[in-house]
Every structure is written in structure tokens, then in C-alpha cells.
Amino acid sequence: MNAHAIPAPAADNTKPAVDKVVQDIADYVHDYEITSPLAWETARLCLIDTLGCGLEALNFEQCAKLLGPVVEGTVVPNGTRVPGTPYQLDPIRGAFNIGTAIRWLDYNDCWLAAEWGHPSDNLGGILAVADWLARTNKSNGKAAPTIKDVLEAMIKAHEIQGGLALENSFNRVGLDHVVLVKVATTAVVSKLLGLTREQTVDAVSQAWVDGQSLRTYRHAPNTMSRKSWAAGDACSRAVNLALLVKNGGVQGIPSVLTAKIWGFYDVLFNGSEFKFQRPYGSYVMENVLFKISFPAEFHSQTACEAAMTLHSELKKIGKTSDDIASIRIRTQEAAVRIIDKKGPLNNYADRDHCIQYMVAVPLIFGRLTATDYNDSVAADPRIDALREKMTCVEDKTYSLEYHDPEKRSIGNAIQITLNDGTVLDEVAVEYPVGHKFRREEGIPLLVEKFKRHLTGRLGEERTAKIYAASENFEQLQKFSVDEYVDLYVTEL
Fold first, then answer.
1. How far is it, in rounded angstroms, from Cα 458 to Cα 403?
2. Which of 122, 229, 232, 296 is 20 to 30 A distant from 97 in Cα terms?
């Protein structure tokens, strides 16, 4: 050892101020009043659509096997009820169950920006906590949270997740978007649980420091089913963190983002600070994208619609997919990065994140449903043969308009060349049915989707009763959470 070496200066242990990003989230959750009628009505639609997606997912064995209590037979008094099931769980496990079912089929809402995601994933934590509180409060003679409280939490969770996603790409540093589910859910359930503004700051800081998911399970060559339960995991961790602050007095980490060397920015975000396009309000819920037509990764929605149109055009001229020589797909840069995939597709999760697969199926069969990703359908040799004939190219205009806050388009265009040299007219679709610009067209289809998902699980009579309770905001908002959830549950 060099006797003349200069020792490193001791770390400054002066307590820093709380990061502004964390403070802004807590201030928004506790102080902002939602006044937008469009946000409230869209939240109503989002609630029923999301619950419907969860019930439909229960028909898939791989999803159903992950649900229920950790210890078989456990029933938690006044616990969270899981829609479509007989389970009554603690709110942490309840959040995992509800969140996993919601996300399983990749059919709930979507937000596309610098970061991608599905803001209604947050309902897993919101509904689990609100339902547990409603049942617990009633058993103690206290007032129960209402569906209006759930809708407010949804609007704010959408805004937090979507607002952070507008200008900040977590995927470019290898992180999955469920980090934003964890942060947003932690923030809004903190308020539901009665935490103070300062305690909410503590809980949100814990969400940022919590181990974050790597995105590799969404991409070749590792695409697998974790992408379908990652949001459920994020919801359960968020509820756990908020409860640790409430019940255990766990303190926060003031400079969790900005601390040099050890903070989120330096460790996980290449030293960059978050950027913000707009203050928190209700913009995200007002502009959220619904998945209505197809259970498919959202960047492919307009490509699937174009493929359905081209299937009809082929039929008109007496041709089939067997007559196709080549297919060109013009798309956005995000689609090229996420779902442009060559080579073998190994499982359901691989297929619903491959634009070539999601275009091939409607071109061949004139449909794309959740069961079309199953092995039995994927075994049809025509699908992989058609995939080999496809080329994806980025359209710079589509990429620019994808990020334009006034448009938020998700354009795709497909052009087919036949074996005889005939080139069919290109079919271009810029906005999917679930886009705000096509909301009037989309709402009746969204309601049909909701009823279809419920009927398959609960039958026509119960579906009619649930829709009657849900179709009007003024009526729906007054339900206590437990009474509304009870409409969806089943018995052993």
C-alpha cells in the first residue's frame, strides 16, 4: 500500500430532499380533482372491458393454473374476491390473480409512446385493495369504497404510467414497462389505503428502488408466458410495498432516482433524468387505446385489420393465400423492434408477438382470435409458409405520427403480389378501431366484446344483469366495490 495515497473523501450523509418526480406523483394522487366527463366515461368503459378480458382469460388453462391462493384451500375473511372465480384472497395475492387474468390475452387497453404499456393493468392492484377494504370496512361498520373511487384511481394510475411513458423509453435500457405499473399502482393504492401524502412519497420511492423486470421475456429468442403475468406480479409487489409503509412504518428513499452511483438514473437509466411532456391531468385516460378487434400486440392491430380486408379482396377475385408470392408490410419503427420476427415460433407468447403470424392467420382464415395462437392452429403449414413471404419495412411518416401527441397513430399498410405478377392495391390503416378518433365506431363493438367475454363464463342472464349495472356512469359509480365485484364471482 502506498503510504502517501490520498484517501477517498467520505460520502456525504446529509439527508437529501425528496426527488421532485416522486413528490409530483404524490401531490397529483392526493390533490388533483378529476373534472373531465370524457375521462370518467372512458374509465367506465375501461373498467368493464378490462374485467371482461380477465374473465375470458380464465378459459385458458395456463392462466387458470397460476391463480388462487398460495396454499390450496385458503379463504381470507373479508378478503379480495377474484372475478370469475370462487377465490377470496389477501389483497397482495388478489392483486396478482386479478392482474394476471387481465393481462393474459393481451386484449386490454394500450398506451403507445416512447414506452409502451397497458395502463388498465393497474386495475389488478386497485380492485384488489378496494374490494378488500370494502368488505373489511363493512364488517367493522365503516363506509366502503365505491366504484367511483376505483374509477378515480384508474384515471390517476393511467395518467402516472402514461405520463412517464410519453418521453421516457425504459425498453431502450432493457427494462420492461411493468416498472410503471408498479409505480402507478403503488401511488394510487396508497391513497386508497389512507396513507398520507408523505407516506405515499415513501411508498412510491420504494417502488422505484424495487428490483425491476428485464424485458427479455418479451423478445426473441426468450419470448414466454411471463409477459402475461408480469403485470400481475407488479401489482402484487405494489400492494405489498404500500402495506409495508402503512403497517410497518417503512420509510422512503429520498433521492431514489437522483442519487449518484446508487440511484435509479445512474444504475438503470444511463444517467439520464426523466423528461415530461405535460403535467399530470387526465390526458392518458381520455386518449387511451382500446383493443377491440383482435387479441394481438397493439402495433399489429391495423395490420390485422388490413389483412382482413385483403382476405375479402382475395375471395372476390377467386384467389387464396396459396396464390400469394410476396407481402410487404409498411409499419412503424416500434413494430419493427418488437414484433418483426423470423424463424420458429415456440409458444403462444411467441405467436401473439409476431406481426407475420398475426397477418398470416387473417389472410388464410379470415379471422384472428385468442385460440388462433394455440399449437393446433399454428401447426397449419400455410402459416409459416406465408410468414416466409413477408417483408417488414419502416415507414418514417408512420414512426413520426406514432409519437405526434395530436395523432398518436399506429399505422400499417400491406401490399400483396400474386404468383401471376398481379399487385393488389395496398391497404393502409392508420388508426385502429380502439383509437380515440374511431371511438364512436368502437364503443358498440367494445360492449359486444364485454358481453361475449362474460357470457362465456357467467351465462346470458348474469351478463345482462352485470351490463345493466354497468352501462350508466351515474348508476355505476354509486356501487360499493364489494357489491359490484360480487356480480362477477362464482362459487365452488
1. 40
2. 296
The 10s digit of each residue's pLDDT in 31-61 is: 999 999 999 999 999 999 999 999 999 999 9
* Cα–Cα distance for residue pair 15/209, rounded to 1 Å: 17
pLDDT band at 125 (very low <50, low <70, confident <90, very high): very high
Distance between CA atoms of residues 59 and 54, nearest Å: 10
Contacts of 459 (CB under 8 A, 6+ apart): none
Provide the pLDDT for residue 8.
64
The set of cell numbers assigned to 380 is 397449419
Residue ranges of the alpha helices (H) in 110-177?
A: 123-139, 147-167
Q: Is the Cβ–Cβ distance between 190 and 133 less than 8 Å?
A: no
Whole-prediction pTM: 0.90
In the 8-state DSSP scheme, what is residue 5?
P
pLDDT digits (tens, 9 = 90+) for 222-257: 999 999 999 999 999 999 999 999 999 999 999 999
Partnered with residue 114 across adjacent β-strands are none
CA gap 101, 228 in Å, rounded: 8
Pairing of strands 324-331, 390-394: parallel
Helix (H) or strand (E) holding 330: strand 324-331
Beta bridge partners of 88: 81
Cell reading at 438: 374511431
Q: In angstroms, what is the C-alpha Rg of the chain?
A: 23
- To the nearest 10°, the Cα dihedral for 122, 124, 130, 136? -150
Contact in structure between 9 and 125 (CB atoms under 8 Å): no
DSSP string, 221-242: T---THHHHHHHHHHHHHHHHH
DSSP-derived secondary structure for 32-68: PPP--HHHHHHHHHHHHHHHHHHHHHTTSHHHHTT-S
Residue 31 makes CB contacts below 8 A (sequence gap 6+) with: 197
Instruction: Indicate the SS3 state at residue 112.
Output: strand
What does the DSSP 8-state code read for residue 423? B
Evaluate the omega torsion of the peptide bond into residue 221 and state whether it is cis, within 30 degrees of 0: yes
- Cell (9 digits) for 478: 354509486
